[in-house]
Write a structure and sequence with these properties.
This protein is of the alpha/beta class. It has a single domain (18-296), classed as Aldolase class I (TIM Barrel, Alpha-Beta Barrel). Helices cover 45% and strands 14% of the residues. It has an eight-stranded parallel beta barrel with strand order 1-2-3-4-5-6-7-8, surrounded by seven helices.
């Protein structure tokens, strides 16, 4: 697997841009990203308390079982934040464990702000040496795509990645994402166009860009209806809802078309529910990766 060479403090010493590392990991392990979503019901199902200690045991078991075996792992920051500073300390430990395992960490934080505040978020998650440094983070562009510049710029300088929310499967999202600008273009289409511009150099070099998109696999005909060209974005496409989660081959062709080759299926509960043993987690992840690869095949 191609992994980011890092020190234990999260400092990036050398390596390829995030998009190239992720593409290599997907080729090696399949198009699967497993979430770490330690919500109370899952902790209870694993026989763990809903405490920072239970959170730590859960998260490190997942990393121990799947590190070096899947293309990426996606900790959901909210489930750590709910435990306050002790939970954030566990998140730092989890990210460090993923670095040690050589597995890409996509931190699901969905940050979106302006100016110095957005720069602060970027420094927290994308700066070399930051305690919460990840290989990539999720961000929201709905204060304007240009508001993401601090995160996009820092990610480019440090070889990290950013996944920009574009078309999500929640019903409420369409009111903003499908809305038309004064020029008549869908808001989501403007977001995708911005990502395409950011990835233009990688496209010219024949490599996958490091600025990705979050696109739900169950959004139906929205991509076509909104005149969006996902392939032209040259972006890794983080896609909830693939395979066992609902979307099969026909639905994926409708949503992603020729861009299916860039899809990274995001899967959490269908793998985590198989725990707590490492053997069962690994078997569930292997099944999910195979199902995603089959559903996304040309």
């Amino acid at each position: 697997m191609t992994s980011i060479p890092v020190g234990h403090d999260g400092t990036r010493r050398a390596g390829l841009p995030f998009g190239e590392r992720l593409a290599a990991a997907m080729d090696t392990h399949g198009p699967l990203c497993v979430g770490i979503d330690p919500h109370p019901a899952l902790l209870d199902a694993w026989g763990l308390p809903d405490t920072p200690a239970g959170l730590q045991e859960f998260s490190l078991r997942v990393v121990d079982a799947l590190g070096g075996r899947v293309a990426a792992v996606k900790p959901q920051s909210a489930f750590f934040e709910r435990h306050g500073s002790a939970g954030i300390a566990v998140l730092e430990e989890t990210l460090a464990a993923l670095r040690q395992a050589g597995t890409a960490a996509i931190l699901d934080v969905k940050r979106g702000d302006i100016g110095s505040t957005m720069d602060g978020y970027a420094q927290a998650y994308l700066a070399d040496g930051a305690p919460l440094a990840a290989d990539a983070i999720t961000v929201s562009p709905y204060l304007g795509y240009g508001s993401l510049a601090p995160a996009l710029d820092l990610a480019a300088r440090t070889g990290r990645g950013v996944f920009v929310l574009a078309l999500t499967s929640n019903p409420e999202g369409a009111a903003v994402q499908h809305a038309r600008t004064a020029a008549g273009r869908a808001v989501a289409a403007e977001v995708v166009a911005g990502v395409a511009d950011a990835n233009a150099a990688a496209r010219a070099a024949g490599t996958l860009g490091s600025i990705g998109l979050v696109v739900g696999a169950t959004i139906g005909d929205a991509v076509g209806a909104l005149d969006i060209d996902l392939l032209a974005a040259n972006a890794p496409l983080l896609a909830p809802g693939v395979g066992a989660q609902g979307a099969g081959a026909a639905q994926l062709r409708a949503v992603f078309g020729a861009a299916r080759r860039n899809v990274l299926a995001s899967c959490s509960r269908s793998v985590l529910n198989s725990g707590p043993t490492a053997t069962d987690l690994r078997a569930a992840a292997a099944r999910a990766a195979a199902e995603a690869a089959a559903a996304l095949a040309p």
